[in-house]
Amino acid sequence: MTITKTEKYTHIKPTQNLVKDFLVAFEIRYPEFKKEHLIIDFSENFNIKIEELTLFLKVSVQHQKNGTSFVLVCSGIDVDKIPDELSVVPTLAEAIDILEMDAIERDLGF
């Protein structure tokens, strides 16, 4: 996995060919990221299915409980079929927008 940290978030791009392989590697390193706003970017070289995205549901819920954001970047997914607890957007720019909206909601007490 390729990890890029900014002041506002950590951007992670899988280098593994299979989502389940990335998930194993991600879960091992998760303690490093659990207090950071995360963007997991599947926009390149992945033909990901909704069932695979839902593997990240537990992490997403935990992040929300911690007051941090967790966004998946994946194009070609019908977002109406995604559980509400997962934030899935088609581009990195939209993921950054989601992080900003989440920050505003937290500031307002939502």
Characteristics:
alpha/beta; Transcription Regulator spoIIAA; 4 helices; 5 strands; STAS_dom_sf
Structural write-up:
- The protein has helices at residues 19-33, 50-53, 57-65, 92-108; strands spanning 2-5, 10-13, 38-41, 70-73, 87-89.
- It has a single domain (2-108), classed as 2-Layer Sandwich (Transcription Regulator spoIIAA), CATH 3.30.750.24.
- It has a five-stranded mixed β-sheet with strand order 1-2-3-4-5.
- By secondary structure, it is an alpha/beta fold.
- A hairpin with a 4-residue loop joins strand 1 (2-5) and strand 2.
- The model has no long low-confidence stretch (mean pLDDT 88).
Helix/strand layout:
Layout (H helix, E strand, L loop, with lengths): L1 E4 L4 E4 L5 H15 L4 E4 L8 H4 L3 H9 L4 E4 L13 E3 L2 H17 L2
